[in-house]
Design brief:
Layout (H helix, E strand, L loop, with lengths): L3 H28 L8 H19 L11 H11 L6 E7 L4 E6 L3 E5 L2 E6 L2 E6 L3 E6 L2 E6 L6 E3 L1
Antiparallel strand pairs: 1-2, 1-6, 3-4, 4-5, 6-7, 7-8
Length: about 150
């Protein structure tokens, strides 16, 4: 099932791609009239340099160059799953100093790097990086391995 967030993200990408096309058309017509860039070899070298600099500067902000967080994607699927009560999520509680487990039915949302849980009538916000394991019917679907940031999907 396609969500409003996915449609919104898709439309933003289309808008951005359209902007790139118009930008490219302006660059093509504008710089194409410069005599020094008329030589294909010089134009190629300048293009490679610009793409390298752009990749270094804008790598963090580009959705195409960053890898998605498998943990976040799996939690979003659980939130929409019709039998989300079959899932369990384990996270590390810093204040208690131990691992806590919650049922998928308590998962309200995943937003801006946090998992929102409903416990009785209060919302609990757990940072995504504290999620250590996701289980379905007792079987591990995702687990944070012993190296702090490496993640494995089983």
């Amino acid at each position: 099932m396609i969500t409003k967030e996915e449609i919104k993200k898709y439309l933003i990408y289309i808008f951005g791609i359209t902007g790139v096309v118009f930008f490219w058309a302006g660059i093509w017509d504008g710089l194409g009239n410069l005599s020094s860039l008329a030589n294909p070899v010089i134009s190629f070298i300048v293009g490679i340099i610009l793409m390298t600099i752009g990749g270094i500067i804008f790598k963090e902000s580009s959705p195409f160059w960053t890898k998605g967080d498998k943990r976040e994607g799996l939690l979003k699927k659980i939130r929409r799953h019709p039998q989300k009560h079959e899932f369990e999520v384990k996270y590390h509680d810093r204040f208690l100093g131990k691992e806590l487990l919650f049922a998928g039915k308590h998962l309200k949302d995943v937003e801006k790097g946090f998992v929102v849980l409903i416990n009785q009538s209060e919302e609990i916000f757990v940072p995504l990086e504290r999620i250590t394991e996701i289980k379905h019917k007792g079987k591990t679907k995702w687990k944070k391995d012993s190296n702090n940031h490496n993640q494995k999907k089983k």
